[in-house]
Amino acid sequence: MADDINEESSGQIPTNLRLLLLLEEVAKVGVPVTPSVVNETLGLPKPTIHRLFATAEAEGFLQRDIDGRSYSPGRRMRLLSINTLSSERVRTVRLAVLKSLAVAVGETCNLAIPEREGMFYLDRVETHWPLRIQLPVGTQVPFHCTASGKMYLSTLRLDYLERFLKNYILERQTDKTITDPAALQKELEITRERGYSTDNEEFMVGMTAIAVPILDNRGRLLSTLSIHAPEQRSHLPDLVEYLGPLRAAASELAAIVGR
User: Fold this and answer.
1) How far is Cα of residue 217 from the mean position of the Cα atoms in its chain?
2) Considering only CA atoms, which of 22, 77, 15, 78 is closest in space to residue 50?
3) Could you tell me the domains of the chain?
4) Which tens digits make up the pLDDT trace of 236-259?
5) What is the pLDDT of residues 148-161, one digit of tens each?
6) Residue 229: Cβ-neighbour burial (10 angstroms; 0-12, 13-18, 19+)
7) Which of 96, 194, 197, 219 could make a disulfide contact with 151, Cβ separation 3.0–4.6 Å?
C-alpha cells in the first residue's frame, strides 16, 4: 500500500494497475503491437514491460503474433470483452433497442462480434412470424458469406484484408457463395463505400440479410447489427428499405457501449 502511494505521488503507475493499463493499450491499438510501442505510452522500465507481456501471454490474455515480437488479445481477453458487453444492465437496454427494431421491421435482429474463426452471435430478438431462421445466441458463422462477416471484413486495413483473402478458405455454402477472392474483395469495396453489407442466400439457401456496423468513438467496428429473414417473405431489396431504422438503432447501441 505504501509503495502504491509513493508511486502515485511520484507520477509512476502503481504496480496493481500496470497489467490492466497494458491490456487496455493493446486493445486500443487494434492491431498486433510490440512491447516497445505500448511502452511509449506507459513509460515503464524495459524489464518490467517485457515481464508483464510474458505474464499476460502465459495466462492467455495476450497471444504472440506470427512475427514473434508483436502481441494481440488472447482468448481470455476476448472472452472478457464478450462478458463485459453482456453485463446485465447493458444487456437490458441493448435488448430493448433490438426489440424495438425487430417490431419496426417485422424480422429477426442480431448483434454479432468478430471472433477468430467467424462472427459470434451475441444477442438476437426473434420475429413474431412462425417461419424464422434458427441461429441462436452463441452461434458462430463464417466471415465471407454472411452480412455480419462481410461488414467486419470491409473494415479491415487493406494489407490485412489481402492477407486474409490469400489464406482464408472461402468455403462454398450455397450456389451463391462468393468463393473467388478477387470477387469478394470487390464486394467488400462496395460494402465499405455504401456502409452496409448483404447476404443474398450466400450462407443459407432461402435466407437474406443486411448488416450495418456499430462503431466506437474512434470509428472502429465494435460489432454488427443485422436483420435476416426467409427469402419467401423478404427479398434483399425489401431489407434494404429498412436501412434507416437499422442505422438509427446502431447509433443507439454505439452510445450505450460508449458510456
Assistant:
1) 14
2) 22
3) 2-78 (1.10.10.10), 86-258 (3.30.450.40)
4) 999 999 999 999 999 998 888 655
5) 999 999 999 899 89
6) buried
7) 197
